[in-house]
Design a protein that fits this description.
Helices cover 47% and strands 13% of the residues.
Length: 240
């Protein structure tokens, strides 16, 4: 590993980058390194995304908590962004069922602090590194209603699957009333214009039934802690 780091630093030096660019690249590497070190300590689980701003006593938070509990009961780790609202609810359900509850938090100037229901946590400086870890650590992806951040995470994983940069894994959008209008936009605007295919909209499943998530996770089973699904994906295509 020391040789790899030395060669990498030499390569950076050969690019004649200024000091700030070198420091920036090291900060990127540190975020990724600490993330990989943590997620290698547990088997791939189920990533749950959603708003940090919704009522923690609201229906979506209650549903996320129930899902987290059910997943833990079935032996699946729950991974969230580590923040409040939907993320906290999912972690809480998992934690109270005695499961492995992971929070991959992001440093923000407002609103985001690690919630108290995580058994393992990592704090990231950069969104991109956090998204890589949320993707790499999971075998099923679940999106509750959210804002721009949730849409960003959804779009990132969707495009990776669409373009074959990662295998097509189960992806669920929870809440038909919330997600159907977006799917309609995809159909009537993007698909109609030819910018996406009809098959692209089959990558994800829109549902109100969280049992579908648990069934999908159970079908995949419990990979060994040393056998990440994405390790076996073509290195030529792999992005994560």
């Amino acid at each position: 590993m020391d040789t790899i780091v030395t060669n990498w630093l030499d390569a950076i030096a050969n690019q004649k980058l200024d000091n700030e660019d070198v420091e920036r690249s090291l900060r990127y590497a540190k975020d990724l390194e600490q993330g990989l070190a943590k997620i290698r300590t547990f088997a791939q689980g189920v990533a749950i995304f959603g708003s940090a701003r919704l009522d923690e006593d609201g229906k979506w938070s209650k549903l996320a908590e129930k899902l987290g509990f059910m997943l833990a009961q079935n032996g699946h780790a729950v991974i969230s962004g580590g923040g409040p609202s939907i993320m906290q609810a999912a972690n809480k359900g998992c934690y109270e069922a005695g499961g492995r509850s992971i929070g991959l938090n992001i440093q923000l100037p407002h609103e985001q602090h690690i919630n108290p229901y995580v058994t393992d946590s990592v704090e990231f400086r950069y969104f991109f590194a956090r998204k890589v870890m949320l993707t790499f650590s999971s075998k099923v992806y679940v999106f509750f209603p959210g804002g721009f951040g949730t849409l960003d995470e959804f779009s990132e994983i969707l495009i990776l699957m669409q373009e074959g940069k990662m295998p097509k894994m189960p992806m669920f959008l929870i809440g038909k009333s919330f997600w159907k209008p977006l799917d309609k936009f995809f159909e009537t605007k993007m698909q109609k214009m030819g910018t996406i295919k009809a098959s692209d909209r089959k990558i994800y499943t829109i549902t109100d039934d969280i049992n579908e998530v648990v069934k999908a996770a159970n079908k995949i089973g419990h990979p060994s802690i040393h056998d990440n699904i994405y390790n076996n994906y073509s290195s030529q295509n792999a992005h994560i």
